[in-house]
Amino acid sequence: MERIVGTGIEIADTEGLETLSMRRVATELGVGTMSLYRYVTSKDALIELMVDRVHGEDKNLTPAPADWRSRLELSALREWRLYSRHPWVLQVIATPQPPLGPNVLADLERAMDALDGLGLDPVMMHWVTIAVSAQVQGAALLRVSEWEAERRTGVTTRQWRAAKMPMLSEILESGHFPMLSSLVERQEEVAHIDEWLWFSIRRLLDGVAVFIEEGDVEEREKAGRAGQEPDLRKAL
To answer: For 6-15, which contacts have Cβ atoms below 8 Å and span 24 or more sequence positions?
Structure first.
C-alpha cells in the first residue's frame, strides 16, 4: 500500500493529477493493474490516500508557538508549503466535499485548537480556521495557475507582463485610471503572491483579534444563525 500511494504522489507531482490512473501506477510498479485493486478500490480512493499522506508531512516545521495568532500563521505556512510541494492537492482539497483522512482532520483540529479558550464557540472557531485556509487556497490558486500557464505556453509571468505593457500603457495614458496608473512603476511588488498572502493573512487575524477582544456576543449570534445569508441585492 505504501508503495502504491507513494508512486501515485510521484506521478501527480511530476506530471499532474490528470495523468494519474490505476494502470499508470501499476506500470510504474511493474505489476498488473488488477493487482492494485486488492489494496485500493478505485482511483478516487487512491487520491484520498495520497492527499492524506501529504498532509502528514511537515509536522515539525517549528515548535508550536504559544499564542493563537502565531499558531494560525504557522498553520497557514504549512498549508502554503503543502501546495508548493504538491500543487495537485489544491484541486482535491478546495471543495465542500474534501477527503477526510486522519491527517487532513488533524490539521483542522490543530488550527481550531489554537483558538480554544478565547471565548469563541466551535462554529466560530471553525469559521476562523476556514477563513485562514481560504486565504491560502486563493493565493495557491494564483500560484498553481501561474505554474500551469508557464508549463503550457513556455511564457513566464514576467514575460507576459512585459508583452502586455505597451497596450496597458496606452490605456492608462487616457487618464481614466489614476489609481491603476500609480501602480505601473511598482508592478513587481503588486504581483508578489507571497507578500500579498501574508499581508492578507495578518490583516484577517487583526480583524479576528478585534472580534475576540470586543466579545460581541450579539454579533456572533447573528453571524452563527444557520442558513441566514446577506441579501446582496439590497446593497446594489
So the answer is: 6/53, 8/46, 8/47, 8/49, 8/50, 9/50, 9/53, 9/54, 9/86, 12/50, 12/86, 12/88, 13/85, 13/86, 13/88
Residues 109, 110, 111, 116, Cα dihedral to 10°: 80
Structure confidence at residue 95 (pLDDT): 86
Residue 57: which of 23, 129, 21, 9 has the closest Cα? 9
Report residue 191's pLDDT band, with 50, 70 and 90 as the boundaries.
low
Find the length of the chain.
236
Domains (ranges, CATH) in the chain?
A: 1-55 (1.10.10.60), 60-225 (1.10.357.10)
pLDDT digits (tens, 9 = 90+) for 97-128: 888 999 999 999 999 999 999 999 999 999 99
Q: What residues contact residue 34 under an 8 Å CB cut-off, 6+ apart?
A: none
| 188 Cα distance to chain centroid | 22
User: Would you say residue 188 has pLDDT above 70?
Assistant: no
Which are the contacts of 9, defined by CB distance < 8 A and separation ≥ 6? Answer: 50, 53, 54, 86
Task: Give the integer Cα–Cα distance in Å for 136 and 52.
Answer: 18
Handedness of CA 84, 88, 93, 99 (dihedral sign): negative
- The answer to whether residues 52 and 98 touch, using CB atoms and an 8 Å cutoff, is no
- Residue 192 is given by DSSP the state -
